Amino acid sequence: MTEPAEVTTPQLIVEIGFTAALTGTVLHLDDSMRGRLDSATLAATDLFTDVTQWFVSGSTRRGATRSSGPTLRYEAGTATLTFRNDDRRFDPTNLSGPYVAGGVSQVEPMRAVRIRASYNGQTWPLWRGFTDQWSVNYDGPDSSYATVTCFDAFGVFSAYDRGAVAAVGAGETSGARISRILDSIAWPTTDRMIATGDETVQATTLADNVLTELLLTTDTELGELWMDADGRARFRSRSASYTALRSAYPQATFGDQVTSAASTTINLAANPSLEVDTAGWTAGGSVAPTLTRSNVRAMFGTWSLLATWGTGGLFPQVAYAITGLTVGRTYTISVYVWVPTGSPAVSLIVSGTGHLSDPSTVNDQWQRLTWTGTASSSTWDFQIWPGGGPPTAGQQVYLDGLQVEEGGTATDYVDGSQAGGEWDGVAHASTSRRLPELDYGDLTLTYDALSITNQVRAARTGGTEQTATDPVSVSAYLVRSHERSDLIMQTDPEALMWAEQVLARRSMPELRVAELLLKPAKDPDRLWAQAYGREIGDNVRVIRRPPGGGDPIVREAWVRGIEHELGKDLNWRTTLVLEQARAVPVVTDTFTRAASNAWGSADSGQAWTVTAPAADYSVSSGVGRQSLSAVNSVRQGFVNLGGVNCRVQVDITCPVLPTGGAITLWSAARATDTNNYYTARLTIGTTGAVTLALLKRTSGVLAAALSSGPMSGTHVAGNTWRLLFEVVGTTLRAKAWRPGLDFEPGGWQVTATDTSLTSGTQVGVLSRLEAGNTNTLPVVVTFDGLTATTLHAWA
């Protein structure tokens, strides 16, 4: 393709901590909340010096340089920066230069470095770390350049060895262990984003090298640990690639048939145009408005939301809860409003920010209002407020086309029913996106033996080696093994689960996109945001149409590394190091539909099957209902996940305290039918005592518990129990708690192994009144927030 004649480049901002006296190991030098490592010394707020005007060229790298091994491990980030040095300002021997304090040059190692880029009103962090080695070069008698190499905080961690303490932390989650390690060196809590993790670990004496122990914990989790562009330590669990919004769905499409003009837009509003129902929209205030769907007018589709105000009251509002935000990112909320003549103007606000949008200014026509801000949490409560004093009963406003998108401006509205749009799940009940094909400079396709691991031997410290083998792969490609003997999970079954997960992920070769090169100058308005806004873990779609013909090669891939080539010319380039993303079956259901004598289809599209009598099943008011109308008669619903190894989480509410006999609440997995499945079962006794057990039903017979244990919480009528159940290979494990009343248990409360069931792909939820129960019939048990994910391909 021909380079454009005139290209807009972003503004590069390069800063080094030169301003104050020796900073030693100051971590982040522009924030009084961020101080020195392992000390009580706070950093000043003005330690960065802008050195952009002397910058000539440079490069940065974060994440992995290659993604082909059986387990994912990120490397220390690096940067190399070259500056003009004709006045010797970057010469460490020049004590008359501008960067000298107390007679000591600040052109030295361990100075904080921050690199950012700004374009079209938006600024992206690119890299953050510390100076390492300065080199001064001369080009003739009057010209000099200085080059500095830099490393990120992984370099700090790798240089820090600790003395032993008494063993601590047995049974804590991998995320808690990562936090404990960072706490041991006083790494600021503002400079970390740590997930809980899915694995529990052995005790630690904290005697190891900091980076070594961090990476060992991450490997045991099969998770991810890296330094982000803001210099924060980021830890994600093994399931994040399939549950985090930016990883589960493509954030952009790159191809060789570029779609002109259209912007890449991801709309986080799940019910943006009210075409089916009002799910997600609520009314608030002391005199709340009345909300109804209206087909009198619509900006998109045929329906809109009509809010009819009451008289007066405090803070009357229309609200919508927004989820899936990334902390620190900028988002724009936009919505179309129609204010009839005689009704008050309206404004947008996000609860807790105190920042109102400009109010509507016209009547009897659609007008788009926008609000822009930076996310401080993963959720926002977006609201519409009337202005100009309290409203009067009967005044109205119509709303349509809600859009929540990353960036500082509102792009053209999109949902999955618009031209070029696609829904991420059920239409009008999921996020949506418009992903036009964007240009790329080059890509690397690989298909090699390095990606194959068909025999995995894994042992925990103090445990017995566990082996998982794929005989089909061994027969085709000979033995290609991977061994770990230092893992820190608590039990041998968990070590076997680790081996099975690695094996399932790597036992066969695959054609994959290993690298993608972007040249943003080709399409500046669309590609700068892609080059500098991508983060480790993002999902991107790549399309390559081979020159010899045939079907296009279409791959979704996770970003595992980001490399920037920076300069003051048109040669800025970004390379994304990629790992093949695996399609993982998922069932999600929030039960926001209405159904009677059935449960209909889950949000993710799979149909529920229920057992007779059908009249005992319904969906309404945001929950699925099982009506227990008889004792010793189970009510059960099953849905096909499509995977054998899985994790199932569901919230179950029991409205009563049992009398006469127990009530049981069940989650099922690896089911072939109603007669064959594994289950995690909560038994609520007449005193409120609760027991969690793992069981199996084979050929219709429910066997004795494989494992069981009491819960610490006591059931009270109306309590909701969150039940989390995993089945991977031969290992079963579960835990349960009352959200809002109990903290999630750090470890699994019951664990067992069994080889009876190997092929079922359905998951289910069940309830039952046990023998002797005398509660008034029917007892209606409700279910909500079901998520089931296959685990065989965890990263």
What would you say this structure looks like, in words?
Helices cover 9% and strands 39% of the residues. The protein is mostly beta strands. The strands form 9 sheets. Strands 1, 2, 3, 4, 7, 8, 9, 13, 26, 27, 31, 32, 33 and 34 form a 14-stranded mixed beta sheet that branches. A hairpin with an 8-residue loop joins β32 and β33. The longest helix has 15 residues.
Largest sheet: 14 strands, mixed
Low-pLDDT sequence parts: 1-7, 20-45
Percent strand: 35-45%
Percent of residues in helical segments?
A: under 10%
How many helices in DSSP terms?
A: 8
Main structural class: mainly beta
Entry keywords:
14-stranded mixed β-sheet, 51 strands, disordered N terminus, 795 residues, mainly beta, 8 helices
Brief synopsis:
It contains eight helices and 51 strands. It has 795 residues and is mainly beta.
Draw up the topology in text.
Elements: E1 11-16, E2 49-50, E3 55-63, E4 75-84, E5 100-101, E6 104-105, E7 112-119, E8 122-138, E9 144-151, H1 153-158, H2 174-184, E10 192-194, H3 210-221, E11 224-227, E12 233-236, H4 240-243, H5 245-248, E13 253-254, E14 265-267, E15 281-284, E16 290-294, E17 304-308, E18 317-322, E19 330-338, E20 346-350, E21 366-374, E22 380-386, E23 396-406, E24 421-423, E25 432-434, E26 437-438, E27 442-446, E28 455-460, E29 466-469, H6 471-477, E30 481-487, H7 492-506, E31 512-518, H8 524-533, E32 539-544, E33 553-567, E34 573-580, E35 586-589, E36 595-596, E37 609-610, E38 617-620, E39 623-628, E40 635-640, E41 646-653, E42 663-673, E43 676-684, E44 690-698, E45 701-702, E46 707-710, E47 720-728, E48 731-737, E49 750-753, E50 762-769, E51 779-790
Parallel strand pairs: 10-12, 13-26, 13-32, 28-30
Antiparallel strand pairs: 1-2, 1-7, 3-4, 3-33, 4-9, 5-6, 7-8, 8-9, 11-12, 14-25, 15-18, 16-17, 17-23, 18-22, 19-21, 19-23, 20-22, 24-25, 27-31, 28-29, 31-34, 32-33, 33-34, 35-51, 36-38, 37-40, 38-39, 39-51, 40-50, 41-47, 41-51, 42-43, 42-50, 43-44, 44-45, 44-46, 47-48, 48-49
Helix pairs in contact: 2-3
